[in-house]
Amino acid sequence: MRAFDLSPLFRSTIGFDHLSRMLDAAGRLDDQTLAYPPYNIEKLDDDHYRITMAVAGFAEADLDVTVTNHTLVITGKSRHEEKPAEYLHRGIAGRSFERRFELADTILVDGAALVNGLLHVDLKREIPESAKPRSIPIEMKERPRLIESPPAEDKAA
């Protein structure tokens, strides 16, 4: 496992200490965790995103979408069949899952919809007025007085 030394970053930034925790969490994930269920992350425009997750076989009641502390958590609970079927081939996974996405402070979940076996989670960037660029007016203070020195006498004579 790789360790990241973020100490140079922390010398010149304030409030990014959570970045270390995010990188550690990302490093602990294995390939199996990332493989199911498959998903896409789309950028619809500058301020709108969509996560689309393939959740074939899951009903609305089997899925849960929650946001806690800037973490979007999508979980799917598999239903157990009363009478187990005898499969000749089972290619459709129906196992439970939990998928986590870390969201920036300005990203809000705008809604979720289940359409044709695809779960769409819409995200929107909302930048608060205090974080938007603003122009600071420059005031003109009283000009400093100029102190004149006496004229230099000519010593060339």
Describe this structure in words.
The chain has 157 residues and is of the alpha+beta class. Helices cover 14% and strands 31% of the residues. It has a 4-stranded antiparallel β-sheet with strand order 1-2-7-6, with no helix packed on it. It has a 3-stranded antiparallel β-sheet with strand order 3-4-5, with no helix packed on it. It is elongated, with a radius of gyration of 29 Å. The protein starts with 6 loop residues before the first helix and ends in a 32-residue tail after the last strand. The relative contact order is 0.16.
Architecture blueprint of SSEs:
Elements: H1 7-12, H2 18-28, H3 31-35, E1 39-45, E2 48-54, E3 63-68, E4 71-76, E5 97-102, E6 107-115, E7 118-125
Antiparallel strand pairs: 1-2, 2-7, 3-4, 4-5, 6-7
Short description:
By secondary structure, this protein is α+β, with helices and mostly antiparallel strands. The protein has helices at 7-12, 18-28, 31-35, and strands at residues 39-45, 48-54, 63-68, 71-76, 97-102, 107-115, 118-125.
Low-confidence stretches: none
Largest sheet: 4 strands, antiparallel
Euclidean distance between termini CA atoms: 86 Å
Question: Strand-residue fraction?
Answer: 25-35%
What's the average pLDDT? 82
What is the H/E string?
HHHEEEEEEE
* Helicity range: 10-25%
How many β-strands, per DSSP?
7
Structural class by sheet pairing and helices: alpha+beta
Lateral arrangement of strands in the main beta sheet: 1-2-7-6
Global morphology: elongated
For the CA atoms, what is the radius of gyration?
29 Å
Instruction: Count every helix, treating DSSP H or I runs of 4 or more residues as helices.
Output: 3
